[in-house]
Specification:
two-stranded parallel ribbon, 4 helices, alpha+beta, single chain, rod-shaped
């Protein structure tokens, strides 16, 4: 897997902070004496601490934060066409030497996709070959 924004993976370092925040308990409330109201006397305080939250809920929350961070890193699987970003000219460098012949069709298809994306965005395209010309001079 390739990440287009690998620095966003530093967000995974926030997982211990999220763990700590979810496990932090607020201070216990002070008991306050109210006027004699029958309704208030019948109420029982219900304490719901973060420490008592179930482990599965904590793990789901941490997984959600980890998925958010990974999503912000813009993952791309190898072999997928990368999105064309930018506004300036597209520099397309193609290795057209002898050893690139084995997957030449795939290289051409990728180059055509990039050229189509750049053309659709109105970007100029600069094309550079790496192999020398037939007469032996480099282009």
């Amino acid at each position: 897997m390739i990440f287009l924004a690998p620095l966003a993976l530093l967000g995974l370092l926030t997982l211990p902070v999220v763990w700590w925040l979810l496990r932090a308990t607020p201070p216990t409330p002070r008991a306050q004496i109210f006027p004699a109201v029958a309704l208030l006397r019948t109420l029982r305080p219900h304490q719901n601490d973060a420490v008592r939250s179930p482990l599965w809920l904590l793990l789901v929350r941490l997984a959600a934060v980890a998925c958010l961070v990974l999503g912000l890193a813009q993952p791309v699987l190898p072999g997928d066409r990368l999105p064309s970003t930018g506004h300036g000219p597209l520099l397309l460098v193609m290795d057209d030497g002898l050893f690139s012949a084995s997957d030449w069709g795939r290289r051409i298809a990728t180059a055509q996709g990039l050229v189509e994306d750049a053309d659709h965005a109105g970007r100029t395209i600069l094309f550079v070959r790496t192999a020398p010309a037939a007469d032996g001079h480099e282009i």
